[in-house]
Amino acid sequence: MNNFKEIQELLRLVSKLELAEFKMKDGEFEMSIRTRHFEKGGKPAAPVMMSAPAVSSAPAPAGSSESAPTPAPAVPAAAGQGSGAYLEVRSPIVGTFYRSPSPDKPAYIKPGDVIKSGDVVCIIEAMKLFNEIESEHGGTVVKIMVEDASPVEFDQVLFLIDPKG
């Protein structure tokens, strides 16, 4: 599993299948993922996503995806209390949230924009890698829940989307 795209596809599949836990070993590369569906002792555990290469005596080559964070797709869910039928687009990784691809470019989306599934909605920087985050739902952007250039946690709500709009 040396290809960053392969890792992204694997994480999309884990998310789509709503698995609670997934572990994998390929040579010296090891990956363990626990999703919000993971339960410990009968109580839901805090969402955890981990990936790290196995300890090796040789350093990873520059640009190696083995030491890169592994983004998952944005995981929308029915929004919490009081938000009605809005969908939440959540952060698939821990990092820094950016609304635009660079400071001199316009934001990917703004409230009132109509988006479709697969549209890039933001970038999250993690370990100096810029990960484009795509929405899995279409609709109208109702609210952006995070300030530009601020830190985000795994599974933090980034956007509210009205699927009917």
Architecture blueprint of SSEs:
Blueprint: H1 4-16, E1 21-26, E2 29-34, E3 39-40, E4 43-44, E5 48-53, E6 77-78, E7 87-90, E8 95-98, E9 114-115, E10 120-126, E11 129-134, E12 139-144, E13 150-152, E14 157-162
3D architecture notes:
- The protein is globular, with a radius of gyration of 17 Å.
- A hairpin with an 8-residue loop joins strand 6 and strand 7 (87-90).
- It contains one helix and 14 strands; from the N terminus they run αββββββββββββββ.
- The strands form four sheets. It has a five-stranded antiparallel sheet, with no helix packed on it.
- The N and C termini lie far apart (40 Å).
- It has two domains: 4-66, no CATH class; 77-162, RNA polymerase II/Efflux pump adaptor protein, barrel-sandwich hybrid domain (OB fold (Dihydrolipoamide Acetyltransferase, E2P)).
- Residues 41-83 have low confidence and may be disordered.
- It has 165 residues and is mainly β.
- Helices cover 8% and strands 38% of the residues.
